[in-house]
Amino acid sequence: MHYARTTSANPVVEGVVVGEPVSLEGREYHQPSSIPAEARRLLAASGSPEGLTNLLNASLATFPVRIWVVDNSGSMTVCDGQRLVTGSNGSGKILSCSRWQELSETVMRIGSTSAAFGVRTDFHLLNRTADGQYLSVGADGQSSPVPIAGEIGDLATLQKMMSSSPSGTTPLTEAVITICSMLETAEAKLRSRGQQAVVVIATDGLPNDKPTFLESLRRLQKLPAWVVVRLCTNQDDTVQYWSDLDKCLESPLEVLDDLSGEADEIAKLNPWLTYAQPLQLAREFGLRDKLFDLLDEITLLPSQIKQFCELLLGCDLLPEPEVDVNAFIAQLEVALKTTPIVFDTISGSSRHWINIKTLKRTLKGDAGCVLS
Fold it and tell me: How far apart are the C-alpha atoms of 14 and 1, rounded to whole Å?
């Protein structure tokens, strides 16, 4: 991609077809719409609890647009990726694959979810392919102040674009600047409505130019955008780079590993939770909730565990575990009976979302909780 030289502090993107924003006047904001039947069916089939489905739907009012930066550089052919194959009743198996296969399946899940909800998600490949570079899914019939860099397509078009073999370098700076130019066009309208775009950078490597990439990220974070990094590798130097980069930015980056990696990290702090694919998908889709973000950062307090379970399961208010832990456990067990079983990557078996035995041990270790 080429950029025009300009005297302005903000480069102008050349070579990208950017459509005119369409008016959103008259629409209601921050009012979650009813969940489309197809979205409810899709998420239920994956094992998503009612609460998580409702949370994801509610978040769409604040985050109406997602923009995925998809790394299709040559290093994505390395075969240290993982893909989950699921069956009925929460059964599943983790298979080895290339990084590109892992990311391609993730992209198609995001695309399918976007199409089911009827909301827009843009996919920007780092390197142009014969089948295109920019595609917007779920944008049909939608109005948005954020222009589209490329074409509007369906899931078949997305699948075709993702079928190209990865090659080339990692021009992350250029990709982020493209998104900055798109969001700057829509900044005033997004801010007036209290809305943001979710920007997900899915990559396995380091940018071609680290200093300019840092500046482009700083520019992006000044805009109405929630930035998520989805790492496609566990290489020490790459993980360390993104960890160090977070310290150089004014706003924190939400850095996600793959499903197994996130599950392992969360189990160290909150082992009572089965971190399953529907929760990973929700976070990749842009669900932003501080309690969910804390799962891999701290050991949740009993009151936070209560709130998390209510949000995840969509159940009635549970008793305070620090007041009556036995009543809390009893009502939680009732709620779990109507919640789908999911695949646990750590044990390799089907489990409930909440491991009651482990949760009892966790609460028993808290001075304020006494189990009979």
Answer: 7
